[in-house]
Amino acid sequence: MVKSVALVCRNWMEIVSGPYCWTEIDLEHWCRKCCIANRSHLIDPVVRKIVRRSRSTFRRLSTYRLGDVGFSFAASRGRCLKTLQIPMCEVTDQVVEKHVRFLANLTFLDISYCLKITEKGLKAFGTQCKSLTHFRRNMPLWELPTSVEASDANDQEALIIAETMEGLQRLDFAFNRLSDTGIEAILTQCKALTHLEIQGCWNVELKGDLEVRCKKLVDFRSPWIDEHEDNLVDSSDNEDESDDESIYSESPSSSDLD
């Protein structure tokens, strides 16, 4: 793509070679195409190439299945970065802890389905990224718990969010294992919170005044979805799958972003 644009004329070549085109880096669809074509090894090198072209001026980075190498390179040059979306990444806690200090200006962070980032990495983000106003940490669907499984509730991530991300306005936390204890801490500490998504957090019961407090928010998605909403979600998924077939019809190559 970049190579083709550069061939149009000298002025265009100078533009794509400079940082002006790369303040907003959205590679998510391209990265998904790589994964479908079994070429995920291309993701980190391409991210490095585009970040280098931005000359550390990029304000948004959106990828998919980003690895440690790509994250460390981008983060170390991310002093201007405001939005970081890296769902399904392979980044580890150790790499987050080492490089997160460069991301102090982040306002929106999406680490949904990033299973290698645990409480340690989450705490590092919360401690260093004090400008965060929107945090997304949706996790994979898990089965509705029985009374025996209810003991699997885990509030550690929720408590870390409450302790280190007091300025949050939006929190997307679907299919996490927090309980009422975690919700209580978040509502108490994150006083600027206006949007809360806890769909699929089936250990939450909203006892006492928790339900009333949640419903006072501008937008609240409860742990439970009724049958009508399920049908809407299924319909939307079918449409997305249809769109994906056309989006991913071509296999990517390393030359796509040369």
Outline:
The protein is built from eleven helices and eight strands. The chain has 258 residues and is an alpha/beta fold. The chain has an eight-stranded parallel sheet, with no helix packed on it.
Provide an overview of this structure.
InterPro entries: Leu-rich_rpt, LRR_dom_sf. Pfam families: LRR_6 (PF13516). This protein has 258 residues and is an alpha/beta fold. The protein folds into two domains: 21-132 and 227-258, Leucine-rich repeat, LRR (right-handed beta-alpha superhelix) (Alpha-Beta Horseshoe); 140-224, no CATH class. Helices cover 41% and strands 9% of the residues. The protein has eleven helices and eight strands. The protein has helices at residues 2-6, 10-17, 28-36, 43-54, 68-75, 93-99, 119-128, 156-164, 180-189, 210-215, 227-247, and strands spanning 24-26, 60-62, 83-85, 108-110, 134-136, 170-172, 195-197, 219-221. Strands 1-2-3-4-5-6-7-8 form an eight-stranded parallel beta sheet, with no helix packed on it. Helix 10 links the parallel strand 7 (195-197) and strand 8. The longest helix is centred in the C-terminal third of the chain and has 21 residues, at 227-247. It is globular. Mean pLDDT is 85; it is low at 1-9 and 241-251.
Unreliable spans are: 1-9, 241-251
Q: What's the alpha carbon Rg, rounded to whole Å?
A: 20 Å
Q: And the CATH topology of the largest domain?
A: Leucine-rich repeat, LRR (right-handed beta-alpha superhelix)
Percentage of residues assigned to helices: 40-55%
Order of helices and strands: HHEHHEHEHEHEHEHEHEH
Average pLDDT: 85
How many beta-strand elements? 8
Number of domains: 2
Q: Report the CATH architecture of the largest domain.
A: Alpha-Beta Horseshoe
InterPro entries: Leu-rich_rpt (IPR001611), LRR_dom_sf (IPR032675)
Organism: Solanum chacoense
Protein name: Putative F-box protein FBW2-like
